[in-house]
Amino acid sequence: MRAADSIEARLVGEIRAGVQYPVLGRSQLYPWLLLAESESDRPMGWVFETLVAVSGDISRVPVTDLRIDAAAPALPLITATSAASTATIVSPTATPTIGAFGVSGVISGEVNIRYGPGIEYPRAGVAYAGDRFEVTGYHTQFPWVRIAYAEAAGGQAWVARDLLDIDGGLFNTVAISQTRFSLPALTPTPAAVRASAINAGQPLPLGAGLNLLAEDLWDLLLQNGFDPQTSRFGALFFLDLSSGEAFTFGDDYAFSGTSLNKIAILAKLFETLDSPPAIETATDILNTMICSENAATNRLLAIIGGGNAYYGAEAVTDFFLELELSRSFLTAPFTTLGTPEPPPFPVRLPQTAADQIKADPDPSNQTTVVEIGSLLANLYQCAYQGGGPLIDRFGGGIEARECRQMLHVMSNNTVDALLKSGVPADTRVAHKHGWIPDTHGNAALFFTPGGDYVIAMMLFQPAWLNFQESLPLFAEASRRIYKHYNPDRPQPAGREWIIPDANSCNYFGDPLVGDLLQWTWDD
Could you tell me the residue ranges of all domains in the chain? Predict the structure, then answer.
């Protein structure tokens, strides 16, 4: 109950479902009733009229604008008719006992539960297909129903009516007509974007410009429906290669490593080789990194593993760990047609500190956006600064010339989509793409006039993620970052992109094979 005929008036008390109260007065302008104590007829407070089942002739109740305070007197002008009508009250603030109305609803798909009957109200939580809730009311003007929801402040929340299958008589529940709803004091959501670092280092404070860019990218994903409070979500890592400033969101989640982990396979291969690759191996390198061919990838794993791809995969996991990238691993070869090679030992399914459930990652092939982005940053440090973990931790097994070779291969990736399509077509981008039905990813190193930087981005949607939704989002995130670093070279949105046919991709006899055989590269 409130002190006046408005939901903005202060709360003055509560009423109980099924209890009768005398009606002392009614509002001249609004559908509100003034209730009294049952024994003394002393004014108690105002309640919205449609929440009251009135017995008697409401037109005989006098109009009043009385406001309730702690010392409110009896209402003299309506004493003669104070009990002319009584009301059976169903409180809009009390949580009905489960089963009180005998009405429930089963959620038909993933839905947002909100604090009011409309998408403009804050989200109280998320429900999934098959969840059942007690229905406690319905809105008379909007197609929304109220449910008992313990996680919400006040124990009540709202769901769009067409998103649940209702069992029982909906119109036996409370009819609610108010159009403005007071919101509870909500606990602020923790900041999603945070400063980051590579190889488990200490993050640097972000400047104001990068803070704004980070929040803008976070909002971009939310606006496109990739929200970590739902099952469809995304993650991003960004690193300025000059200043070392970095930020991320979504790095707590492990994603399927897809073909992005082929970057680690390439780096481990070069650490293994002590002479230029044979022509066949050079061809497999290109078919792995550009065509993403799994058979070629497994042959590289076999070289790393001394003839066995499973040992090669385990060596890649050890390679990640040596770089302090403990949430990334590969413990089995990639899937190919035909009968798979039997493993020489039980395949490990490592448990990491990341959330390994939400994105349903491949149990033998996982990474996070920070760790795959960190690996690209390590290649850049090795290639152009002559230092970093790849040189420091592998005892001369990887040299700067080899890192330049690896980036040269990735710079010739013919997939002109995903993050690359957000920058001018002539921009040098060393990147690796990877996707499976539910996960799309891209990790890229950009060489731009305004500065060099790394972006790693992953998007996930259960069962199937549509490229028509993911590709424009990759491009737009990349475009905004490029614009931040190159404000005088604006890149228009919507540049055309190309994904070549993988079935016809084969680098046998290509001039790039000759580049790898040179064993040095100064690109």
Answer: 19-89, 104-176, 214-517
